[in-house]
Amino acid sequence: MQCHLFTKQLYLDLSRTHHTDKLREEEIVKIRQKIAKMLGWEDEYWYGSDKAVKLKKRLKKETILIILDGNWKEIHDHLEEIGIPTSCKDDVNECKIVLTSRLDGGMLFNDMKMGAQTCFVVETLPLDEALILFENTVVAGADSVVEENIIELIKECEGVPLAIVTIANALKDETMDVWKNALQHLKNCTTMEGKKVVYSCLEWSYTHFKGDHDVKSLLLLCAMLGYDDISMDHLLKYAIGLDLFSPIDSLDQARNRLLELVEILKASSWLIELDHRPKFVRMHDVVYDVVREIASKDPHPFVFKEDVIGLEEWSKSDESKKVCIPLFTLQSCP
């Protein structure tokens, strides 16, 4: 349908911006830059109100669908400041804005002064649709014992697609004993409030990862880096610096190894492929939160620090042997 109604679709994940009454200037600029890149503008600074005007004019030139994912109720105060037109009724090309949020829909949209035409809840999957999704992912047979365990597993997933796909991927080609172990884990797991279902599925899948240790290490690295779309080039640099792919004899070998591991993570629903940015991957915000929680408990040899504040004190107490620091902070490194 969108192919006929809209000339372009722009998707923005806002779930990781700071949920405060006022967006910080750098966050506003980052959102502008994301939109600009999707519109084909590269290598341009997007600071200042004049850039918001420029962006708004560009968005009004076509019939564009703008999807803002992971909203909170204060975001509407900043759309015009960012450069997203909230009213295009007088324009020939009328853009449309779709807002999604995990907040209660009534609470979110009652507070918003954007004249939303429709507000609806996206329900979890009913049992029959959840069963189809699970079987299409795991490619299960029609054995009655298997079917019985599938239904029990799906009920524990509570119709959440991410939970269903993650646990189904982890159970591919596994024995019935492993299936029963997964089911028991989901029944017994009590953890982060509000994320019990997805967390327990991801936690079990992580501990039963098919493949070598490099897959887990790369996943943890993605979570340490991921507040935004994750650059494959940055992943390669960090992975080489942390010696994650040892033994590797050349840059080409390291790049090929990275591509192999990323494909494994995408196939298992841990990473998301970006059609509009082929050299980047993304981590679902729920997956990001869960992997960071897992990383805080799972021993691993490195940690990512966004700045060097407190680095000397950290180095005396933390058991990690390696640290990642963004390049722009190295000048003040002790």
Which terms summarize this structure?
334 residues; mainly alpha; 3-stranded parallel beta sheet; 15 helices; 8 strands; 48% helix; disordered C terminus
Write structural notes for this entry:
With 334 residues, this protein is mainly alpha-helical. Helix content is 48%, strand content 9%. The protein is built from 15 helices and eight strands. It has helices at 2-5, 25-38, 49-59, 79-82, 105-110, 127-138, 144-157, 161-170, 176-188, 196-207, 213-225, 232-241, 251-267, 285-297, 311-317, and strands spanning 8-13, 64-69, 96-99, 230-231, 272-273, 280-282, 302-304, 322-324. The strands form three sheets. It has a three-stranded parallel β-sheet, with helices on one face. Strands 4-6-5 form a three-stranded antiparallel β-sheet. A two-stranded parallel ribbon has the order 7-8. A hairpin with a 6-residue loop joins strand 5 (272-273) and strand 6. Helix 8 packs parallel to helix 10, helix 10 crosses helix 14 and helix 11 crosses helix 13. The longest helix has 17 residues, at 251-267. It starts with a helix and ends in a 10-residue tail after the last strand. Residues 306-318 and 327-334 have low confidence and may be disordered.
